[in-house]
Amino acid sequence: MNSLPRASSSVWLKATYKATPQDFYVEEQMTMEFSGEGEHLYLFIEKIGQNTEFIAKQLANYFGVKAMDVSYSGMKDRWAVTRQWFSVYVRNRQFDSIDLSGIEGVRLVEFARHNKKLRRGEHVGNHFRLVIRGVSQTADLSSGLEYIREHGFPNYFGVQRFGRDNQNLERAKLWFAGEIKVSRSQRSFYLSAVRSYLFNIMLAEKVQDGTWLVASDGPLYGDDASGLAPKTDEENAFFAQYPELVRGLHKNRMTLARRPYRMPAENFSWSFDNDALTLHFNLMPGAFATSLLSELFDLEDASTRQMAEQ
Questions:
Q1: Could you say which of 23, 77, 224, 275 is catalytic?
Q2: CB 285 within 8 A of CB 123
Q3: Most buried among 15, 136, 177, 271, using CB within 10 Å?
């Protein structure tokens, strides 16, 4: 992320985030109206220090169902306080109360019945409250903050998509070259990392020439799909510069998707408390809060060090 061009500010400050899980708060926004009946139990869960997949497995154990019977709309950070929805296929079993106190780092906020399972990307957005530490109040951040509030920020994929030290991307290249074999579960991570990498490079070019604010949605490489604008000549010329990556994606039958170049930060506000800057904002599903932060800060992720010490 440090090598990608920024759009909002000439100020780029060293700072720290995720000093504690409470410094990174995320809450899913859902507009679904529950039917109050049905075979699916929806659980709104607050979790601290646990990842989404771990919680899903614990819910499967608690309710005595298969892992495939537990669904969630989006993945959420581990080193954070997050609130998100899960659904569990419990058939006609009834529950007057649910005690999840035996699952570490979990608190049940509310639950409801519904007649359909929760599907990926079904939430309408995420609300963030982030605390950035080590920031001087005298730093001239105002222009960058105001720019983001007015224009949004380049919708780069965040570092999470590429794995620690870009391992997902590097292993994808080895896989495409036939130098390693990968499991079915690994394939989705590697294919996603390659498409995200290509998107970031294309977006970076748009940021450099100033067209990212007015450009249409950018392509996530794949074969053209019905009902979606096909790749333009300009986009095909860009992808032609990366033949090994494109061949690997094509071989795995990836289908074209599109993603906004520009991401608005809705209800964006901020406040200072000594050397801490607190940001509030809402983002659409699929957007990375770290990409917003990277517009202004050269960030140290304190959670990396603390999780390594555990």
A1: 77
A2: yes
A3: 15
Q: Is 249 helix (H, G, I), strand (E, B) or coil?
A: helix
Query: What is residue 308's predicted lDDT score, i.e. its pLDDT?
Result: 57
- Cα 56 from Cα 17, distance rounded (Å): 26
Length of the chain: 310
Alpha carbons 232 and 217: distance in angstroms, whole number: 12
Give the pLDDT confidence of 173-185 residue by residue, as tens digits.
999 999 999 998 8
Tell me if 191 sits within 8 A of 254, measured CB to CB. yes
Residue 310 makes CB contacts below 8 A (sequence gap 6+) with none
State whether residue 23 is helix, strand or coil.
helix
Tally of structural domains, the chain? 2
**Cβ proximity of 85 and 28 under 8 Å:** yes
- Here the CATH number for the domain that contains residue 64 is 3.30.2350.20
Q: Which domain holds residue 195?
A: 156-259
Q: Which residues contact 192 (CB under 8 A, 6 or more apart)?
A: 161, 168
Dist CA 2 CA 261 (whole Å): 18
Give the C-alpha separation, 196 to 169, whole Å: 9
Confidence of residue 113 (pLDDT cuts 50, 70, 90): very high
pTM above 0.85, yes or no: yes
- Asked if 106 and 43 touch (Cβ cutoff 8 Å), the reply is no
Residue 304: which residues within 8 A CB-CB, separation 6 or more? none
Residue 169 belongs to domain with CATH number: 3.30.2340.10
φ and ψ at residue 286, rounded to 5 degrees: 90, -10
Q: What are phi and psi of 296, to 5 degrees?
A: -120, -25
255 and 190 in a common domain: yes
Is residue 77 among the annotated active site residues? Answer: yes
Q: State how beta strands 125-133 and 106-114 pair.
A: unpaired
Q: Band of the pLDDT at 107, cuts 50, 70, 90? A: very high
